[in-house]
Amino acid sequence: EWPDADHRNIIGEVVDVLGPAGDNDVEMNTILAQYDLPYKYPKNVEDAAEKISDKITPQDFEEREDFRDRFTCTIDPRDAKDFDDALSIKSLGMGLWEVGVHIADVSHYVKEGSVIDREAQKRATSVYLVDRTIPMLPERLCNYICSLRPDEDKLAFSVIFTLDDEAKVRRYRIVHTVIRSKRRYAYEEVQQLLEDNGVKDGTGLPAPVPGKDGYKGENAESLIVLDRLAKCLRKERFKNGSVKFDREELHFDVDEKGKPIRCYFKRSKDANKLVEEFMLLANKTVAESVGKVTKGKKAKTLPYRVHDNPDPQKLEQLREFVAPFGYKLKTEGSKGETARSINRLMDECEGKREQNLIQTIALRAMMKARYSVHNIGHFGLAFDYYTHFTSPIRRYPDTMVHRLITRYQQGGRSANKEHYEELCKHSSDMEQVAANAERDSIKYKSVEFMSDKLGQKFDAHISGIQSYGIYCEIDENHCEGLVPMRDLDDDYYDFDERNYCLVGRRRHHKYQLGDPIRIQVANANIEKKQLDFTLA
Prior knowledge:
Elements: H1 24-34, H2 43-50, H3 58-63, E1 65-66, E2 71-76, E3 85-93, E4 96-104, H4 106-109, H5 115-123, E5 127-129, E6 132-134, H6 139-145, E7 153-164, E8 169-180, E9 183-186, H7 187-196, H8 220-239, E10 249-254, E11 260-266, H9 270-291, E12 304-306, H10 312-322, H11 335-349, H12 355-365, E13 370-372, H13 396-409, H14 417-450, E14 457-466, E15 469-474, E16 480-484, E17 493-496, E18 501-504, E19 510-512, E20 516-525, E21 530-535
Parallel strand pairs: 1-8, 2-9
Antiparallel strand pairs: 2-3, 3-4, 4-7, 5-6, 7-8, 10-11, 12-13, 14-15, 14-20, 15-16, 17-18, 18-19, 20-21
Helix pairs in contact: 8-9, 10-12
C-alpha cells in the first residue's frame, strides 16, 4: 500500500521466498508467480480429493451403458499421466462401424460448488511448463480416479457414433458409460503400427488392403480402420473450408535436474491426427445437439468454442504481400471461399523459401479462438457449432459442458446465460495467461540450452522484424534470439512494417522475414530470458 501523500515509499510484505536464482524449480515457480498462477495445491482441496471414493457402485452400472466388452484404447504422448479420452470401435457389418469417443467423467466426481470445483474454476486450465504440469485438478483425480487407465473400469461420458465406410455419421447418441481400456498406446507406437502396414505419413492415404495373413501387429485392424475413417473425416473437413495450419511445437528433453539436453520440433503425424479428428467430431456433435434447434425454438445455454472471421485489413495486407511472390488470395466472398483460398496458398507455398514467412503472416491475420455462450461458429474449423467436451481433466469449460448436457438430458431448464458467459470469459483469460507462462518457460529453457554455446555460429532464418532489431531462429534447434539494430552498422536501416522488412537507405540491402541468415551467439541472459546474436 501507499499510506499517504507524504510517504515516499510504498509498503509491501514478503509473502513467499522462492529460493536462489538459477535453481530450476525456483525459476519455474518464478514464472508461475509472475503470472499469478498457483505453484502449490491448497491442502484443503487435496484433502477433499482424498475422501472421494474410486469405487463404481451397482447404481452407477444401472444408470450407464456398459461398454467394457468393446476394443477400447487410449492414445497419448509418451509421458502423459492423465488420460482424458479413449476410442472404441466395433464392426456392425454391412459397412457400418460403431465408434465410441469416451471422455473421463469428471463432473461425476467434482460436484458444482464444492471446494475442488471452486479451485478448478479459479485455475480454469492445466498449465504445461517445459518440465512440469500444474494440474487444474488434484493429482488423485487427474492421474488416478478420472484418468482412463488401462485394465481398470472407469466412468465416462461418451459420444457413440454409427459411421459408414466413408465416415458419414448415420446416427449418434451422447450417453454416460462404463468403459475398460484394453491398451494404453503412445502416439509413436500407433504411428509405427500404421507405417508397418503401409501407411505413408503425411499423404493422407489409408493403409493398403491387407495380404492373405492380414495386417501386422496387435489390434492392427481396429487401429487401421480408425485411421481410415479419421482420414475421411479430415478430407471432408478441408473440403468444407477448414483452415490448414500444421504448426510444429518446440520440445525439450531435460535431465533429472531440469537442465535441457536436447531441443527439437514435434510434428503432428497420422497417429496424432487420428485422435484429433474424432475429438473434433465429438466436440462438434455435442455443440450441435444443444445449439441446432428447429426454427422458432430458442437454444439452451452452452459454452461454445468460437473463432471469428479473420481481420479483413490484415487479410488484405496478406493478399498484397503474397502478390509479388506470384500467389493469389481471395479476400471477398463467403467464409468457406476465404478459408479455401488460404488453404490453396498454404499448399502452393509449401517447401518454398517463403513458406515460413507466409504462414506466419497468415496466422497473424487470424483471430484468437475463445469461449462464449454467444455462438458465432468457428472459422478455422469451418464448423457452425463447436464446443470443448473432450478434455475435462485439464480444461474447465469441458466440465461445464458435461454438467449442462447431463442437466438437459434430465429435462432441466436452460442455464443462466450471464453466469456462464462470465465463466467463459474467465476461462479464455486464464487460457491466455497459461499460454504466456508456457512461452516464458520455453524461452527460459532456450536461453539455458544456449548458455554454453557463446561464440558459436549457426545457420538461422529471420523469424521477426522490429524497429529495434531482427529476431532470428536457429535452424537446427529452433532457439530464437535478437540481433539488435546497433549491430547492423553497414548502413542506416528503415523499418518497413507493411512488408515485414528492414531496408538500408544507401545500399538498399534488405532483411526480410523468412530470409536465411548466419548468426553468432553473443550473450545468453537467463534472468531476462534473452538471447543476443550478432551477424556472423
